[in-house]
Amino acid sequence: MIDPNKIISDANCVVCGTPPEEGSTDQRYIQFHDRKIFLCGKHAEAFHIGAVMGQLELNSALAEFILKMDDPLNSQQIKEHILEMVPSARRQLEDKQLQAHIKGTYKEQSPREIYEYLDKNVIGQEEAKRRISLAVYEHYKNAQRRADSPLLEKQNILMLGPSGSGKTLIANSIAKILDVPFVSADATSYSPTGFQGADVDTIIFEMMYKSSGVHHAAEQGIAFIDEIDKLSTHAMQGTKSEGLNYATQSSLLKLIEGKKVKVPMQNLGHPPGTMTMVDTTKMLFMFGGAFNGLAEQVGKLMGYSGRTISLSKRNEEDRIESSIRSYNILAEASTDVIIKALIDFGMNTEFIGRIPIIVPLAPLTKEQLYKCLIDLPNSPVSRSQMLFAESGVKLEFEESMLQAVVETTAKSDTGTRALNTLVKRAVSQAAFDLLGSEPSRKIKHVVITNECIANPESYVTIN
Question: Tell me, what's the pLDDT at 401?
Fold first, then answer.
């Protein structure tokens, strides 16, 4: 059997090392993947017979596999079965993937292309999408520079915005269009040493898992860490949490500056004790946080006072107006002012200094919430309708019900997350009664009414 790893660079026989004979007709060159190998007359015919027999055996195994298929399999499951039949193919596939990652895995996109993709998946946040698109482009262009080229400042990003304003969706969408691994985490789950919560280095462990163990791919991934404001120390002075949060920020600082993390590879199919080093220098870190009260501090630094920055919640209209006013203050402020306010808020000076892109996100209007509810490719309405359609049932939502969901969401503090929660609750009883069951073959049309928000059993069926 020919060992691909034994292939030599000269023209000698790959099996026995015999040099070519001038004028001999029984020796031959064979294309082996992207290389040509030489076989002497003694081994050429045997190789040909072995190749034919091997192909027949493989054809037989594939035919048997297809005939024994009982349940529908997706493409990934089929690929795994085939790779089990041909173990060497798995190694060759992994080698090709590794070479691709060494050359650079991310799918290069212009700032406009990144923005246009975000625009299809994220409602509103026009200015934020433009700034982030440009920052991401600059980051990855800088990451592709030669090792001896001067590195520019890393374009790590901090998004300031209320819950449900699209922070996670923006980060995830960017990872998808660039085709890089993506890890999302909550800042409150980490600690500097791991004795209370996870060690911050577990971010890199998960990135390696998402990269199928290819560290060159992990090094170009995107890590999104939400609720970073929970690590601030402004409300924890003199407590144990103050020191813990400050130390956690310092640990994260080492990651975003560039740190070589030793990652165990045992859980990725390698022998116990196998380790690899992942360099975070080129990894893009994106952070998110609500930072409630930050706008008031920024406003004071800018000279505003009184009702201009009041966050009173006397009624619903006043709450919405205050949210919009807070966004306007953050959008108007310079980066230096926001950084000063963030430090006063309790963020580590050096940590914030390593995040050059700070972008405020606006609270969504009712019109934008409505678009999130029905227009996005993965909207709560479209997901529910797709689920019912798989059981042959048409799912319809009354307009009054959709408007009520938007109104309820606008009054909440969870943004777009409330949309999904309310829709799931409204369709829950219909889904329980009809999906995949015998009645679904008779009932082909279901209407979710306004009453279903409070009482999911109020759905209407049409035969």
Answer: 93
